Amino acid sequence: MPPTTHRRKISQKELRAPDELTTLVDSARDFLVNNLTQVLISTAVVVVVGAIVVGVYYYERHRDNIASARFYGAITALNAGQNKPAETQFKQLADEEPGRRLGRLARFYMSSAYLADGDLPDARDALVAFVAEERDPLFRSLALTNLAVVYERMADWKKAAGAYQQAAADPGPEQARAELGVARMLVKSGDKQGAIAAYRGFLAAHPFAQQRQDVLESLALLGAPAEIPPPPSAAAGGPQPVVIH
After folding, report:
1. Given 18, 55, 192, 239, which residue has the most CB atoms within 10 angstroms?
2. Residue 141's Cα: distance from chain center in Å?
3. CA 19 to chain centroid
4. Count of other CB atoms within 10 angstroms of residue 127
């Protein structure tokens, strides 16, 4: 018998497949042709935005470098005792770059130049402006302590005590000095009992402080015993003294 030939029947889906592919390609082509202008505009916008972002980044880095160079020049002048040039350079940097870290720090160092030059009102104003914006606890404490010193030199005991109190609230290298400053301002303002309490509080909080003997003498001058037990000695197994600079 001759071999039997089997022919596979082609489904309607298979018959439609090339037509569907053609239709899809045609639709994509038509979309591109009909929206070519919009596609080109969108592409151009993306390119322009990218170029702007890159340009702004490098421009800001360039300005950072310029601000750094200006800040270094002002610091160099300050360290050399050239207070007037330092004041001018710090002020220009602070006014022109208020949004940059170095621009804000310029106000702090500008106050140092004013202090070195004996210009208390300008030093006060620079420190007040700096403290109002500063969030770093170290620089804030330093600025508040310097502000208290300015008020003390201006014989404004109340404001000096307030600035010292704010500085004492921030842990750091200026805390002990600020606490003693509060007590000293209370003495100058005539609040004897408040000063005694402040000195005793200092001894209780800092039993090994370098200023301990000075505080005891201040209490004696105020006619008040310290009423603070002496710090345990190292030989008796107590903690080692901690010197606060």
Report:
1. 192
2. 12
3. 67
4. 29
